[in-house]
Each structure stands twice: as C-alpha cells, then as structure tokens.
Amino acid sequence: xxxxxxxxxxxxxxxxxxxxxxxxxxxxxxxxxxxxxxxxxxxxxxxxxxxxxxxxxxxxxxxxxxxxxxxxxxxxxxxxxxxxxxxxxxxxxxxxxxxxxxxxxxxxxxxxxxxxxxxxxxxxxxxxxxxxxxxxxxxxxxxxxxxxxxxxxxxxxxxxxxxxxxxxxxxxxxxxxxxxxxxxxxxxxxxxxxxxxxxxxxxxxxxxxxxxxxxxxxxxxxxxxxxxxxxxxxxxxxxxxxxxxxxxxxxxxxxxxxxxxxxxxxxxxxxxxxxxxxxxxxxxxxxxx
Length: 289
Prior knowledge:
Layout: H1 29-44, H2 52-68, E1 77-81, E2 88-90, E3 95-99, H3 100-105, H4 109-124, H5 127-148, H6 153-188, H7 195-210, H8 229-241, H9 253-259, E4 273-275, E5 278-281, E6 286-288
Helix pairs in contact: 2-4, 4-6, 4-7, 5-6, 6-8, 7-8
C-alpha cells in the first residue's frame, strides 16, 4: 500500500525529529492474574449483566461506602453477573461481584449496601491473603502427616480432620469479622445498619424455598466457608444496635425498586425458555417439545 514506509531507510535531516519511541509495557503478574480470574468468573456466571440504571445506583452506593471507610483512596469496581444465583464476592484488588439474583432478592439500597460493605470488608481486612497463608500451612501439615506415619490410618485421619476444622473455624471468623465491619461501615455511610440482618434473613428464607423438606439446609454449615445464617443474623442485629440511635440512616427503598424494575429474574431467557410444553432457544434457533 502507498501509505507504507520503509522504516529501515528513515533518515533525519534538518530540523526533522525521529518518531517517538514506543515502549511496550508488560502487565504486572498481579494484574494478569486478576484479569484471568475476572474472565473465569464471567464465564462461570453467564457473563456481565448490562443495566446502566442499576449500575449507576450501585456505583453511587459504593462511592458513599468508600468515602466513609478508613481507605477512601482505595478504588473498587463492581460487576453485575448475569446469573439468577444469589451470590456476591470480591477479589483482593477491589473487584466486587454481585449477581442479578442477589439484586432481585434485596428490597432496598441499605440491604444491597450491607452486601457491598461486607465484601469491601474482606478486601480491607486482607482476608484473601490470610486465607491463602492458612491454606499453605494446612497443606504443609497434611504432607508432614503423610510422611511421618503413612501406615497409621487413624492418626492420619484425625490429623486431617483437625486441620479441616481449623480451616473452617478460621473462615467462619473471617465472615463474622466482615459482617461486623460491614455493618459499621454501612451505618457510617448513613445506610440503615439493620439492612444486613434483613438481607441475611431473606437469604435464609430463599434457601429454605429451594431446599428439599427432607434435608436440613444448614446441615453442611459446620464445614462451610460461611457460618449458619441464623447466627449471622443475630450477630448482625447486635452490631446494628450500636449504631441505630446515631444519625439518620436511609433504606432508600423507592429508588432501589425503581432501579431493579425490568431486571431479569431467574434463568436468562436468551439461553432458552419454556412456553407451554415447548423449549425454545433464541440464540441457537431451535425448539423441541
């Protein structure tokens, strides 16, 4: 093409200046790892859910929480995930995730803010780093047990069970700490501090609806990464009482309900839906009875 130039024959004459040197910058390992994790999360949760009105409400709530926190210089980025599951989590770099299923379950901005402040608390308290270090120690203990006495199955099983209980207790402690920090942060940002207790109660009712009547929905809580919901509700209410009398705290229900109006609920219809006795998949263009 005529626009191409032979850079090997480029010469400088008179007052002409050589073209500026462009230095390629290699992303840091931390940035690369975060990007990879972000893409993995998007792939696992149906991608990002695009809703500018809802995104604006979330951003406004996060800005209030950041301004009230001990690290107002720390930046967060929230991604809404296109999933009907009720979930929220955070990366150590400040990337926060909430599913549209969680947004549908919340009933006002203070409840949403309790979730956001809880995840911010995990970031501020560096729980991920602490948890990683704890996992490394547990792996070391497991390896030592196997090397010291691989023939004694009872001793080995006992040691492994003790390690798992320690890990579970550590994670439960993190969740309770994040709850307490989150309630305090939400209250400081003038959100209703009881939002956390209300939302945790809603999560328990939602879980009960989806769980078989023959099974205890909290049967696995002891070795779960999250403590039993009733206990968390009680602790959240106790924390909220410390801040309820001070200042004016908002629930902002009307603005929240307006923001979630037209929010997709349940499974994404673009991935297929049922009409009568027929299943239709709009993306792939097929249907069957």
